[in-house]
Amino acid sequence: MPELIQNPPLLLCPVGDNAVALLFGETISADIHRRILAVAQALEQQPFDGLVESVPAFTSLTVYYDPWVLSRQGTLDAYSEAVRLLGNLVEQAQEMQPEPARVVELPVVYGGTFGPDLEEVAAHAGLSAEEVIQIHSNGSYQVYMIGFAPGFSYLGGMDERLVAPRKAKPREKVPAGSVGIAGTQTGVYSVSTPGGWQLIGRTPLQLFNPNRKTPSLLQAGDRVRFVPITPEEFLAIEEEQAWG
Amino acid sequence: MGLKIGKPGLLTTVQDLGRYGYQRQGVVVGGAMDKVALRIANLLVGNVEGAAALEISMQGPEIQFEEDTVFALGGADLSASINGKPVRLWRPVLVKSGSILRFGKPRYGNYTYLAVAGGINVPVVMGSRATYLHAGLGGLEGRALRSGDRLPLGASSETNRQILSALLLRDKKEADFAEVQWSPEPELLPGYAPNPVLRARGHLEYNWFSESSREYIWHQKYKLLPQSDRMGYRLQGTTLALDEEREMLSTAMSFGTVQVPPQGNPIILMADAQTTGGYPRMIQIITADLPRLAQVQPGGLIRFEDVSLEEAQRLYYQQEKRMLALRQAIHYKLTHV
């Protein structure tokens, strides 16, 4: 039952009875991601009656709707309506100028108690701790999606030299703000949770704060840079935040 | 003035219809496990359908009313009583100040909803009063209720007052509480069953599963395990496997998604479903059957039945038409006492 939009190719598939998945491809790429965000942006600017919300992921955008509202209380076919409206939106999204990516700088203390696995990652890579810090903080990372936990970002673009396996035994508690590496991925723990990533540093910035207008610091589409700081600077930033 | 919690019970939280618009920031929708029961309980006390209520699970709490209050219970039957006298589900009840609501042996279901006139008045966080335990968000300080907690109630509306006066007509001085004698027709309520057949549709990774797994999912019974909670219901049965190993990129998940981790026992994501995940999604339970799913007790046997999208939509429209009929019926009762 999937609907195909030809140019550029895009598949629309029903998910359960209250969502449409827009499938843009099967591999992670900057181009696909740009197209996903363009449609998400078009939806935000021109929401249709019955739209609930949309969730961007690596290669898909899932659009949730209320079938009762979209079907005008059961008089139309909700899914057909959703496909019709989304088809129009996808077309419009192609014409839209994409918003330039926001660059977010995350100050990070690398190593020590802030990044207890820095030495392990360095040893695994055959590099010194300083080299790991340099490579990691020289990179520019794409936020592909937010998920798993509130404000948790999936980042793409880590230097392959830093690839490291997960911890054999996950930690019971990883502090919020911890910067980690797992396989080819790097990321920042947004809230304190159990976790198995190798921890190389920590940022004092709150990745998630329910009292902010936009609770998640990072959004899909942002670019992230890590900026090395000292423990003293960490404490100063933390204190500044506490005072709002 | 409001509600005071004595014994907290196994897990009592403030819930509403959930938090929408924040999934792209990683925040779950959450809200009531059985949203239809919450909606009906609210309608019965004259609230808007999505007002915040208490979600009470299995071993219920002890709740003292600190003022004369109109309430209704809906969902699981946890043998509720007021000052030792049984009180029935699915109808408005006027209770006198100082009375204590207690729960006993669960007769059916897991979650019952206590809706009170005016709603539970905790702060709105990100558009909702629902408690999201894992992130400590919403509800009362983002947590389950504890002994000694006090919950304030919202202001009464005109409809709340109509129901109150309908109950006052029946109030006998010596009684601790008064119930109306009517209750919604059983056809208007969710048809709970201990071992239900739940209708579902193949999900996007459905065809990744082996032919035999695709047979099993529609024909075998799966047992609900006790290690189940507001995030997920764990099932045990004939294990399910992919045709071949495949790379899965994290993608959207929702309430009713049946995902299959590598060990092969399916997990149904529930109200606090993570927004995204990386296990293959085999099927999606239709929206109209989620209330019945939420009320399956551990040990219950679930069978899945494949339905078309048209059928799934039709069943959802029927559910919403029942809610409309219920609203009208309640309005009629109130204006023709």
TrEMBL record, chain A:
It holds the Pfam family CT_C_D. Signal peptide: none annotated. Residues 10-218 form the Carboxyltransferase domain. The keyword Zinc-finger does not apply. Keywords: ATP-binding, Hydrolase, Nucleotide-binding. GO terms for molecular function: ATP binding; hydrolase activity. Gene3D superfamilies: 3.30.1360.40, Cyclophilin-like. SMART domains: AHS1. It comes from the Bacteria. This is Carboxyltransferase domain-containing protein.
TrEMBL record, chain B:
Pfam families: CT_A_B. SUPFAM superfamilies: Cyclophilin-like. It comes from the Bacteria. Coiled coil: none annotated. GO terms for molecular function: ATP binding; hydrolase activity. Keywords: ATP-binding, Hydrolase, Nucleotide-binding. Residues 24-322 form the Carboxyltransferase domain. This is KipI antagonist. It comes from Pontibacter flavimaris.
